[in-house]
Write a structure and sequence with these properties.
This protein is of the alpha/beta class and 412 residues long. The chain folds into 2 domains: 104 residues, no CATH class; 267 residues, Purple Acid Phosphatase, chain A, domain 2, CATH 3.60.21.10. The protein is 31% helix and 18% strand. The protein is built from 11 helices and 15 strands. The strands form 3 sheets. It has a 7-stranded mixed sheet, covered by helices on one side. Strands 5-3-1-13-14-15 form a 6-stranded mixed sheet. A two-stranded parallel ribbon has the order 2-4. Helix 9 links the parallel strand 7 and strand 8. The longest helix has 23 residues. The radius of gyration is 28 Å and the shape is globular. It starts with a helix and ends in a 9-residue tail after the last strand.
Length: 412
């Protein structure tokens, strides 16, 4: 009541312009209008609030429109200065009409990214498990997934994963634009959230819309590793998998260079698995043919690659570029190394959008820029197979196989 009483003492005429008292108080408490000099100023601010928060104000827009019209007629009989004011109020009156006209088309919250009104909770039809021989595991996924303005691509790739059993990896930029709690719940949750229980996530740059990626860690809980780090490891049979935080400039991460917390953890973790096949995934790539090199190629990851190369890692998966690109096995300096090299596959095809690629850089073997899809990896002791599975209606595909460097492959 305090703000309302003060405002009434400034101008008893306001009752003729504004809606009834209960709603009047709510509007004025929200916009903090006390102290504005004139009815006109207050009217403009209220209409500004109306456009920003349409839902509740539609109730009184009719009243505002009618009272503005009457006020305008009285003002037109006054001086020239009054005529100028009446013209301004006439514009404001027409604004009220526009609010009434377009309000049904724009529900509350339309100033934010478009989001589904409710999240459908469905049972995952393909839970994570080993195949019949107990030695074969499936790892399937992509990066750059749910754009809240258009979920069509994320829904298309979610349909693919529904049919593929195994563990899901999500290589960063999971919920656009800022990785907020609402975007995770309403956009990622409405698509790939169906597989949350069997998903291993990694941080992308869009998760750092908030400097500490708090919504990401809240959504995933223990599945994302220790809060603030975003790197962890797990096993799938004979394979040791590492989820990396490639946002090297992120707050509290400490970088990715030699001696950084993540690099020291990586070396120690790898040392504990000398006989395992090694696979790592994260959001950014060390190698990419992306058009803008500062976006596509991330030399700050080279030290982490050196540790992986020393441990004879077989595969690195990444996203960030919204396209598909597969490289031949190579060392951290980009030299082909068929015997000991790491094969990098960039699979930013989760559904957000498509990015063009530039001229192919050295060792790039396969590229595609117009197909959403997921990569399915079949992991067995000493061996792996990859298959790019495209969205329904598309024909691009890529498949092949490889062996873990310096790993004894069982006889078949």
């Amino acid at each position: 009541m305090g703000e309302y009483s003060v405002l009434r003492s400034k101008s008893n005429r306001l009752d003729r312009l504004l809606p009834p008292k209960p709603l009047f108080r709510a509007v004025y408490n929200k916009t903090n209008l006390v102290g504005l000099a004139s009815d006109f100023q207050r009217t403009v601010v209220i209409l500004h609030w109306t456009v920003d928060s349409l839902g509740p104000t539609v109730i009184w827009a009719h009243v505002l429109r009618d009272r503005l019209a009457k006020r305008n007629m009285r003002t037109m009989k006054k001086s020239a200065a009054g005529n100028r004011l009446s013209s301004t109020l006439f514009v404001v009156q027409r604004t009220a009409w526009l609010v009434l006209l377009f309000a049904p088309l724009c529900p509350t919250g339309c100033s934010q990214s478009a989001q589904p009104a409710a999240v459908e909770q469905r049972l995952d039809p393909s839970p994570s498990k080993a195949l019949a021989d107990a030695q074969t595991f499936i790892l399937v996924g992509a990066g750059d997934i749910a754009g809240c303005k258009d979920l069509q691509g994320a829904r298309a790739t979610a349909k693919l994963i529904e049919k593929i059993p195994g563990t899901v990896f999500a290589a960063g930029d999971l919920a656009y634009e800022k990785g907020s709690a609402a975007e995770f719940q309403n956009c990622y949750g409405a698509t790939w959230g169906e597989f949350k229980g069997r998903t291993k996530p990694a941080l992308g740059n869009h998760e750092y819309g908030e400097p500490t990626a708090s919504a990401y860690f809240q959504y995933w809980g223990a599945q994302a590793g220790p809060v603030g780090r975003g790197y962890y490891s797990f096993d799938l049979g004979a394979w040791h998998i590492l989820a990396l935080n490639t946002n090297c400039g992120a707050k509290d991460l400490g970088g990715c260079g030699k001696g950084s917390p993540q690099e020291e953890w990586l070396r120690k973790d790898l040392a504990e698995y000398p006989d395992a096949c090694i696979l790592a995934f994260g959001h950014h790539a060390l190698f990419s043919s992306g058009v803008f090199k500062s976006h596509a190629i991330h030399p700050e990851l080279k030290v982490l690659w050196q540790d992986l190369y020393a441990a004879h890692a077989a595969l690195v998966l990444a996203g960030h570029e919204h396209s598909y690109e597969r490289f031949a096995p190579q060392d951290p300096d980009g030299r082909v190394d068929a015997a000991n090299g790491i094969r990098e596959i960039v699979v930013g095809t989760g559904g957000r959008s498509h990015d063009p690629l530039g001229f192919a850089i050295a060792n790039s073997e396969v590229r595609n820029t117009d197909t959403y899809g997921v990569i399915k990896l079949t992991l067995t002791p000493g061996r792996y197979k990859w298959e790019f599975v495209p969205e329904e209606g598309q024909t691009f595909g890529d498949s092949g196989s490889g062996e873990c460097p310096h790993h004894a492959v069982p006889a078949t």
